[in-house]
């Protein structure tokens, strides 16, 4: 308790964001006590803008008054500040691979999702983005050789990948897609079950029904646009 | 010499790439001996594709047969593998800031350049991308409080920023733009001189005339397209 009296950890976030939830999960894994400061999506507070003037985005972690932005930068900061239950491996080569695959998820998976949203908005074929998603899932399927990407314990790729494991099935349900399933990607599908049922992760996931309602509203506004 | 007999370090790259040059600079800073394997831009070798099947891009660093891709992942790998002359600070908060600004350059500066290229191709106004570039330079101008972003010694932000310091002036010269100069961004401009004249950097920069010729050809093909 002594250390908690000296430390003040705040996480500025919004509930439906997979980028915020990965920080929640990392702090939970480390056993760090923190205060979640809920921001209003689309109308961020002056405090948030002050802490992240460059991107004006959540999540922002504020540790003893000092802000850190960008979810993967925050994950590394957490791992270097609180050493217990490492998020990254200790071997430099394994660390490089973990960073590579974690970046891959944000780059290629998020990229394909953006393309999917834009094809819905433009009422164009979503074939290209679906193929991109399949390529992403196939690379990850091939890469997964243990229970988690981190081995027997969860690591940065697993935490980043919760976006795929928990958010994407909700998006699929809303949009009627069937890209990610047990038949096509059996290892990745099993992993998605294991990671979302992992105690440290489960405790920090948003309510599925709330997320469904959120994405239903977004989906309807996307297909109704123009 | 004993360690060099055990170690084999190869860098797969192309000469005009700022992403490849940052790896050259980092290896030079560390005093690591390596072999530069020149790839053919637009027609990468099977070896390169085998080493980087995900992105099919240079740079790829191959250390004792094990490939690492993506320039910023490679820089961190180099820093963790060869400890002398650190590229990242040791304090976790300063490390987070260094990662943040290094990502910022690749995200916002590269993003604005892509937009600039696409407006040239479409023969549309480049006003928006120029404003984005100015915002990028202003943030960096405000952030620069010592000789280098890394302090008195160069660090990851400086190495990443060579893209701005050396490549952008060449691009400006080719396209007739005047966005980055001593009047508007005096600290950043001085930094651009200091970093390109730093011995470790200077030794690894491509020939300016070659780069000019390369970008002149690219510029002409962009404005001639359609």
Automatic annotation (TrEMBL), chains A, B:
<protein>
    <submittedName>
        <fullName>Uncharacterized protein</fullName>
    </submittedName>
</protein>
């Amino acid at each position: 308790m002594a250390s908690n009296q000296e430390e003040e950890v705040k996480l500025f976030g919004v509930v439906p964001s997979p980028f915020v939830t990965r920080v929640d999960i990392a702090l939970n894994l480390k056993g760090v006590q923190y205060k979640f400061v809920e921001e209003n999506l689309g109308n961020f507070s002056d405090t948030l803008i002050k802490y992240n003037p460059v991107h004006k985005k959540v999540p922002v972690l504020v540790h003893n008054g000092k802000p850190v932005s960008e979810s993967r930068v925050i994950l590394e900061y957490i791992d270097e500040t609180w050493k217990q239950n490492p998020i990254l491996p200790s071997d430099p080569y394994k660390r490089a691979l973990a960073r590579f695959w974690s970046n891959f998820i944000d780059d290629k998976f998020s990229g394909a999702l953006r393309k999917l949203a834009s094809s819905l908005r433009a009422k164009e074929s979503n074939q290209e983005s679906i193929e991109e998603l399949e390529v992403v899932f196939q690379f990850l399927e091939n890469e997964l050789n243990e229970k988690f990407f981190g081995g027997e314990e969860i690591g940065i790729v697993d935490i980043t990948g919760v976006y795929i494991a928990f958010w994407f099935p909700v998006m699929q349900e809303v949009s009627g897609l069937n890209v990610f399933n047990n038949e096509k990607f059996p290892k990745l599908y099993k992993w998605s079950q294991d990671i979302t049922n992992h105690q440290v992760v489960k405790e920090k996931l948003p309510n599925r029904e709330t997320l469904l309602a959120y994405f239903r509203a977004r989906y309807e506004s996307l297909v109704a646009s123009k």
